[in-house]
Specification:
5 helices, about 210 residues, seven-stranded antiparallel sheet, Mago nashi protein, 2 domains
Length: about 210
């Protein structure tokens, strides 16, 4: 009788051990799958920014200041889809030497008003640091399948760009409607727009009459 009980206990112990090992293996597989997913997502971001797999959007963000002498940043904002005569957009471009704002009419972006101001490297560096603080080069995944203007045709849309030399190394868009966010731009949109806007003391005068 005692032998039978011992045999049963031994069998039960083996079953418990096998169960624990199986659970550990499943956990390790799950962790491996998650790690692979994170790696794929990181590499995808890097490819979108024209980087190799060892770099990421955080590296590009630091480059905003590091490459200040040879770069420019731009924001382009337009109202929703409307008649060509009433369709307006605003483009603001900042570099170490210049600040330019343009009011554009129609879908062919005919320049209606503009203003160019000088800039200096230290002011530009300060501006870039402020953009970094607001995640200017952050990318989010957008699986909606919509393109710029198509996602929210009655709402304001934004494009954010970074030029390094003659190359555009970052270009992402954003719009918002029906409680949903669309586009791959992952930064803080309102704060970033305000930073650009505040670079132009005459912003209100230049954009007077432009309705969004």
């Amino acid at each position: 009788m005692a032998g039978k009980i011992a045999t049963k206990l031994s069998t039960k112990t083996k079953e418990n051990t096998v169960g624990v090992i199986a659970a550990v293996i499943i956990l390790l597989i799950a962790l491996l799958v998650v790690a692979i997913g994170v790696k794929i997502s990181s590499d995808r971001r890097a490819r979108n920014l024209g980087l190799d797999g060892a770099k990421s959007s955080e590296v590009i963000a630091s480059k905003l200041v590091d490459n200040a002498e040879n770069s420019s940043v731009r924001i382009y904002v337009e109202r929703g889809v409307i008649a060509d005569e009433k369709h307006y957009s605003i483009e603001m471009t900042i570099s170490a030497n210049t600040r330019t704002i343009r009011v554009l009419r129609g879908y062919e972006n005919i320049e209606e008003k503009s203003e160019g101001l000088s800039n200096n490297l230290e002011a530009y560096r300060a501006f870039l640091k402020a953009l970094e603080k607001n995640d200017f080069t952050e990318i989010r995944e957008d699986t909606s399948g919509y393109e710029f203007r198509a996602a929210c045709p009655t709402e304001r849309s934004y494009r954010f760009s970074l030029m390094e030399g003659s190359s555009e190394t970052f270009d992402r868009w954003f719009t918002f409607c029906d409680g949903k966010r669309f586009g791959e731009y992952g930064g803080k949109v309102n704060a970033t727009f305000s930073l650009f806007k505040n670079q132009f003391p005459n912003y209100g005068t230049i954009t007077r009459g432009v309705s969004f």
